[in-house]
From TrEMBL:
Native organism: Jilunia laotingensis
Signal peptide annotation: 1-22
Protein name: T9SS type A sorting domain-containing protein
Domain Secretion system C-terminal sorting: 389-436
Coiled-coil residue spans: none
Length: 440
């Protein structure tokens, strides 16, 4: 049954989609139904076209292939796998052209795009690791469109044993051979509207994945972990999205494997804005993500974080866990939810179509935004500060300043300080806030 489903030419899933109405017809399309006796739909939506007409995702749990949602039918359809058994999909443009990687009859993946029902290959470097192209973890893949669709970003696993980003500009391959990369290299997640910013992760000398960007060919790590702390957890930190304004969003993990969502731009630098992962942003004052790793999907608007269901007044018992994509006009939000049955817990895709009223509330950003700061201290002594600030000073209980930092976005290392209570004074211009933290 599974093979018949996978080989079908983009058939429509016969799901009884849950249509949940909120104020002014904001509608949740939640795809958690059983397809047949054995197969469920898993995974989540990865990207939405800028005009909101299409959304794509990938089921890596049950179907091992991609799917597309369109705003006309309001339904999800499985994507044609061509000659192979599965496809990887990542992005879609305003015309419904889908980016990803597809297999030939031998199971070899090629980066490409699906247009008018047919998969088309993109050129690959000569120095590509052919022996590993059958492994989806190393498959060369096209992952992100520029705004006009003329630039495509992707990742290639080279013979040197590293992931490297590539661009296809009007179909022509552009490589970055001069990037000095450690470990397994750099893995691309998104590109800016004009292709000048590439976002993803780069590996550190200790094997950690570090959120990073490439701007005009230059690699920039968005933060530096404490490399001397041998007791810390493996860090997986990702810059996952670039919005129309050039803001980069994502998350990092601390010593206790607790996530901290961030937003970065050239003007303001790095800001930690949430204790959960950030999936995408509309602009620097409207950001979407999750309250925590397994928490509800959230929206941070004008510096205030709330659950998406509360903000949109969605009366539903369906669990929406994160927002990973939004259209340019905020009409469509999408991501993944979590379901549980006899087979266990698994993620499922969803799409929310917003009413005019809800869209107005999201896009009517206040111009006078005041960032609220908060602080958290990991068990390893890493101090994280959310919001904007111009300086930080950490005081002992005797009133002595034991460390200070004037660089926003730095992780302040307190691991060398004795256990006890400390006062963290966060300064933003002529205003300041003080917080108490206890170091174990």
């Amino acid at each position: 049954m599974k093979r018949l489903l996978l080989l079908a030419l983009c058939f429509t899933i016969s799901l009884n989609v849950s249509l949940l109405q909120a104020q002014e017809q904001t509608t949740l399309y939640y795809f958690d139904e059983i397809i047949d006796d054995d197969i469920l739909l898993g995974g989540g939506i990865l990207n939405v076209s800028p005009n909101g007409k299409y959304a794509v995702g990938y089921d890596d749990i049950f179907m091992e292939t991609g799917y597309v949602w369109d705003a006309t039918s309001k339904k999800l359809a499985m994507i044609d796998t061509g000659a192979g058994e599965s496809v990887l999909v990542n992005d879609v443009d305003d015309n419904g052209t889908i980016l990803g990687s597809f297999q030939n009859e031998d199971g070899i993946y090629s980066p490409g795009y699906l247009k008018d029902g047919e998969w088309h290959s993109l050129p690959v470097p000569e120095d590509i690791k052919e022996s590993r192209r059958k492994d989806s973890d190393y498959a060369p893949i096209a992952q992100a469109f520029s705004a006009d669709g003329k630039i495509i970003g992707g990742t290639i696993y080279y013979n040197e044993g590293k992931f490297r980003p590539v661009l296809w500009i009007d179909g022509k391959l552009q490589e970055f051979p001069d990037l000095q990369l450690e470990g397994q290299g750099f893995y691309l997640y998104d590109i800016s509207n004009d292709g000048s910013i590439i976002a993803g992760w780069t590996e550190s000398s200790m094997g950690d994945r570090i959120a990073a960007i490439i701007v005009n060919g230059e690699l920039k790590k968005l933060y530096e972990p404490d490399m001397e702390n041998e007791d810390r957890f493996f860090l997986e930190c990702i810059a996952s999205h670039v919005d129309a304004k050039g803001n980069v969003t994502g998350y990092i993990t601390d010593d206790d494997a607790i996530l901290h969502g961030f937003i970065y731009n050239e003007k303001d630098g790095l800001k930690y804005i949430s204790e959960g992962p950030i999936g995408c942003s509309l602009n620097d004052n409207c950001v979407f993500g999750s309250i925590s790793v397994w928490g509800d999907a959230s929206i941070i608007k004008d510096g205030e974080e709330s659950t998406l269901k509360e903000f949109l007044k969605l009366d539903t018992d369906k669990f929406i866990s994160t927002v990973t994509a939004c259209s340019a006009d905020a009409k469509i939000l999408a991501g993944s939810g979590i379901c549980a049955n006899d087979m266990g817990a698994f993620s499922v895709p969803y799409v929310i179509e917003l009413s005019e009223e809800s869209r107005g509330e999201i896009t009517s950003i206040q111009q006078q935004n005041v960032d609220k700061n908060s602080v958290s201290l990991s068990s390893g002594g890493q101090l994280f500060i959310t919001g904007s600030y111009t300086g930080v000073c950490v005081y002992s209980t005797t009133g002595s300043c034991v460390t200070k930092d004037n660089q926003q976005g730095h992780i302040i290392n307190l691991s060398q300080l004795p256990s006890g209570m400390y006062i963290v004074k966060v300064v933003n211009g002529n205003q300041s806030q003080s917080f108490k933290v206890f170091k174990r």
